[in-house]
Design a protein that fits this description.
alpha+beta, Ribosomal Protein S5, domain 2, Alpha-Beta Plaits, 2 domains, binds alpha-D-galactopyranose
């Protein structure tokens, strides 16, 4: 399974150049092209996607890039900058019972899902480089899936409009990798637009690109990596999902999306168990917070979304019970230092916090979070200030751009 290892480029070099140089060093010739997909942050709408609800993610300016070229036969070879390894797999691992494991599963899963959907997937050599941190809740897996998908669709000339990419990549993750995630991450990394958030209805996958022009409002989003170890995240995620599906069954609706905010009290009265009531209350109020946030953004009132973000955090902490002390500390410290709103983003049990801040307050807020961490003896957090970027696609060559 191992092969030629290309040297690591300095992490400061552009990620697209690192992927291309890695390709050339691993395979002895330049790639046919480079395809990128971003990580994502979810502005608001957590654990609503698998309840057929609403989400509002945006693409990060941090990207995963696949440099690629076709190779004959049903064979795929992938070099990763991060692990320094080259793995290869053939038709056996994407048809029969054989499975690729580890990071390669996200690549093989995409090949598997494309073939399952009836596409003739070209054999390919790929080199992957990424600026999306792993395990930070910023969808590094969806970014990898989408970068590889973009490359294979173009190399094979496959007839697959981008609207269908998210379901396909989600299927790779659910069925091949084995993670029971919803549709948000793959939709975000594929369908987001520069300078916009993606208002996605997870029931019918309709979208609205809502302007999220932080720069014009003198604002920034500070993303704080809590560096909290993910504690039982997979099992807890699946448990939340099961509990929501059970509650929908008890309430006689297809999904919790069908409980409107003004029907919440009635729905809660029909549930006999306090924990289930809390889970339902989170999902129903969170859907409403997404709608309220979208309404504010549509009318250019981006400064005013802060309290909705903070209320979302409280709901995740108290009702959905998916936060951990590190993320609660980051949110409290950011708010105390003047953030307009702050919340954990992503599946929970660690990951990142985002704080909406006046652009000139980004550094003092980050410093305050770091100090609060030190006071509690937590591992120092990471942080980066971001603006919304574009979704997945081919990177133009120098002649094209
Ligand atoms: C993870 C999953 C998403 C979504 C979020 C929670 O990121 O991959 O599908 O459920 O958690 O909002």
């Amino acid at each position: 399974m191992s092969g030629p290892a290309a040297a690591r480029r300095p992490a400061t070099a552009d990620v697209a150049d690192r992927a291309a140089t890695g390709f050339t060093e691993a395979y002895g010739e330049p790639p046919a092209g480079r395809w990128a997909a971003p990580g994502r942050a979810n502005l608001i709408g957590e654990h609503t996607d698998y309840n057929d609800g609403f989400v509002l993610p945006f693409a990060l300016p941090l990207r995963t890039v696949a440099a690629a070229a076709p190779q004959p036969g049903e064979a795929w070879t992938v070099w990763s900058e991060l692990s320094g390894e080259t793995i290869s797999f053939g038709a056996d691992q994407v048809t029969g019972s054989g499975r690729v494991t580890g990071w390669g599963a996200y690549v093989a899963g995409v090949v598997w899902a494309l073939r399952e959907a009836g596409h003739r997937v070209p054999g390919a050599r790929l080199a992957i480089a990424s600026d999306v941190p792993l395990g930070a809740g910023l969808s590094s897996s969806a970014a990898l899936e989408a970068a590889v998908l973009a490359a294979l669709v173009d190399l094979g000339g496959l007839d697959l409009p981008t609207e269908r990419w998210p379901r396909l990549a989600q299927r790779a993750e659910n069925r091949y990798v084995g993670a029971p995630t919803g549709i948000m991450d793959q939709s975000a990394v594929v369908r987001c637009w520069d300078g916009h958030a993606l208002f996605l209805d997870c029931r019918d996958e309709s979208v609205e690109h809502v302007p999220f022009d932080l720069d014009a409002a003198g604002l920034a989003v500070l993303v704080v990596d809590s560096r909290a170890p993910h504690r039982h995240a997979d099992g807890e995620y699946a448990a939340r999902r099961t509990s929501c599906e059970r509650a929908a069954g008890l309430l006689g609706v297809t999904a919790l999306r069908d409980v409107p905010a003004d029907g919440l009290a009635g729905a809660l009265a029909r549930l006999d168990e306090e924990e289930t009531r809390r889970r339902v209350r989170h999902v129903v109020t969170e859907n409403q917070r997404v709608l309220d946030t979208v309404a504010l953004l549509r009318s250019g009132r981006v400064r005013e979304i802060g309290p909705l973000l903070t209320a979302s955090h409280a709901s995740m902490r108290d009702d959905f019970e998916i936060t951990v002390p590190e993320v609660d500390t980051a949110v409290e410290a950011a708010l105390a230092a003047g953030a307009l709103g702050a919340r954990m983003t992503g599946g929970g049990f660690g990951g990142c916090v985002l704080a909406l801040v006046d652009a000139e307050r980004a550094t003092p807020v980050a410093t305050a979070v770091t100090a609060a961490y030190a006071a509690r003896g937590f591992t120092a957090p990471g942080h980066v200030t971001v603006l919304p970027g574009p979704g997945a696609g081919r990177i133009p060559t120098e002649e094209e751009s």
